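Revision sheet: structure tokens.
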Amino acid sequence: MFRPICRLLLICFALLQVLVLGVRAQETTPEQPPAIAPKAANLDYADNTRGLERLAKDIMNAQKEGNESRAMELAQSMLLPDSANWYLQTFGPNIANDEGAKYAADRKNLPAEILKVFFGAIQNHFTEVTAARFGDSCDDNAGENAFGTLQLRLDPSPLYELRLGDGNRFLRLFALVYVDGGFRYALAPRVPDHFPYRERTTVTTKVQIATGESASSSTDKKPIRIGGSVQAARLVNRVQPKYPGGGSEGASSGHCQAARYY
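Predicted:
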């Protein structure tokens, strides 16, 4: 009789010790702070030219202030979320298999390449930011491939062009699109390669932003060299269209280099 009682008491005592140790462990274990998700880039940029201009200015201001993390955050926000599907829906399978595949292959390098464009513009004093929005046509300052790119679209979503200027000269970054609430950089098709009646030319991925002068002319500004898939056109002079009566109001004649492809 005595032994069973003692055994029961020992079991109860052991259980009590386990409960006490558990309570003490809970009391001494510090509370873990809730997991904080990485802060997403602020994409509060409207789908218009002012919205794109503000994004460009925010990137350049971050670079001027030495805030590299913010500049990179904004540059990363300019990647297409689903580039394969976007190229397929916007331009069809041929361009998706060409420029779309190049975009996907160079995706991890694109943010740094985008930042090189802006940093090079700052160094060369091309800090006047303007943007153009192209729907069915484009303005007289658009690049020679802009109109052809518009004609290659299956989906008529607008394309944007960003211009970083210095007086009457500017650097051009084309094309940008507004997708899923933000501006994204898109590698534009090489138009001659996708019009069957044009002779196919050699594709190059090395792009140079140069002055509009010949190689033999002297200039204090060095060309901005950009490797990879970011296509920034050569430094160009703004076109000031002449209108009947000598006026200069407006920004476009609407022809937009159409004669090059049709």
